[in-house]
């Protein structure tokens, strides 16, 4: 690998995405309620921890998505960390389906934010700070409540779902 690479714009974007994909992450579903009470959620792997005291976490939301006004306006949302048997949930919440919650059982978090069942961990967050981040909006939020279960996590690496080796 050379120290410097000079790319065309298209090559830069593709190679940048591939290089970012070398950072292995977990997979979450971020959920909230729209003003009309409808549950809203999407798959997110930009989640990360920020601060222990105060307890802060972050994630980023693409400015192109229809849920932007809902997440900007909501008081609370939930971050559901998926277990390794929840790949179908990740695919569902990464789709453009109109009713992602149909037939899905979930608990009610703060502000009615859906807390999905069978997750590794669930964080209930106050929608505290939002910052512009290029083509994404960065959400930095205070964790009000959380729970966890000892389940292996679903992972995402190199554009594909992965699991921990047994
Ligand atoms: C593994 C994975 C991670 C994702 N992470 C993010 C993310 O961090 N931020 C984001 O805005 N979209 C992310 N997406 C894309 C959204 O889940 C996708 O655009 C989804 O359709 C948005 O829901 P909506 O169409 O109902 O708005 C991710 C998708 C996948 C499969």
Please give the structural blueprint:
Layout: H1 9-20, E1 25-26, E2 28-33, E3 39-44, E4 48-51, E5 56-62, H2 68-73, E6 76-81, H3 87-93, E7 106-108, E8 114-116, E9 121-133, E10 136-148, E11 154-157, E12 160-163
Antiparallel strand pairs: 1-11, 2-3, 2-6, 4-5, 5-10, 6-9, 7-8, 9-10, 11-12
Bound molecules: flavin mononucleotide (FMN).
Flavin mononucleotide (FMN) binds near residues 67 and 95.
Taken together, the total number of domains comes to: 1
Number of helices: 3
Strand order of the largest sheet: 3-2-6-9-10-5-4
Could you spell the SSE succession in H and E letters?
HEEEEEHEHEEEEEE
Number of strands: 12
Roughly how many Å apart are the termini? Answer: 33 Å
CATH topology heading: Pnp Oxidase, Chain A
Describe the main β-sheet briefly: 7 strands, antiparallel
Give a summary of the structure in a few sentences.
15% of the residues lie in helices and 43% in strands. It has helices at 9-20, 68-73, 87-93; strands spanning 25-26, 28-33, 39-44, 48-51, 56-62, 76-81, 106-108, 114-116, 121-133, 136-148, 154-157, 160-163.
